[in-house]
Specification:
- This protein has 63 residues and is of the alpha+beta class.
- The chain has one domain.
- The protein is 11% helix and 22% strand.
- A three-stranded antiparallel beta sheet has the order 2-1-3, with helices on one face.
- A hairpin with a 5-residue loop joins strand 1 and strand 2.
- The protein binds zinc ion.
Length: 63
């Protein structure tokens, strides 16, 4: 269940959380990630406003 954060300006993938345990801190919130990367998109250099791309998230209900 990957969680992908994209830049809202250039659509660059800023951070992708692919699986649990990848990152000791778990999935960062958008504000935490913004602080972590200094508030600027590494691709387009603009002030970033992260959006979560939910299209890659699949939710499966167990029976
Ligand atoms: Zn960008």
């Amino acid at each position: 269940m990957p969680i992908i954060y994209r830049c809202n300006k250039c659509n660059n993938v800023v951070y992708a959380f692919i699986r649990a345990g990848q990152d000791y801190y778990g999935v960062p919130s958008p504000s935490e990630l913004t602080v972590r990367i200094g508030g600027i998109c590494p691709n387009c250099g603009k002030n970033i406003e992260l959006k979560i791309d939910l299209s890659n998230i699949l939710i499966t209900l167990s029976k």
